[in-house]
Amino acid sequence: MAETGAxxxxxxxxxxxxxxxxxxxFEDSRYDAIKGAPPAGCVVESFAGLFGLRCRRVGPTxxxxxxxxxxxxxxxxxxxxxxxxxxxxxxxxxxxxDGYGAMIAGQLLLMxxxxxxxxxxxxxxxxxxxxxxxxxxxx
Length: 139
Fold this sequence. Notes:
The protein is an alpha+beta fold. It has one domain (2-133). It has helices at residues 32-36, 62-77, 100-119, 123-133; strands at 2-4, 7-15, 42-47, 50-58. Strand 3 and strand 4 (50-58) form a beta hairpin. The longest helix is centred in the last third of the chain and has 20 residues, at 100-119. The radius of gyration is 15 Å and the shape is globular.
């Protein structure tokens, strides 16, 4: 993350890595439109043969920046970017809402949303679950 005045600029990678076999490859035609017009602040890249975006976006937190790109891609192209490229999900860093720990949390949230949707859960179901489990910090 870089600070430009009071604006936080977040750098992250987002991949489309759905729970399907075989998974779609970078060359899949479903990516043609987004390859021609990626979201602002993002460039298309192949990550070991998977479709992905390398992004540099402004947002109050890393999760806000990631959510903005994911929402735009889902709305305009019809698929959910499901991966932030984090490999060691069991690790934890208590380095705040913009550090590596936030990247891990974001990865887990994207995976949870994708898998919950495959199982038939709705956004309301997930919000209800998170609200019931509760976070000790509100804001």
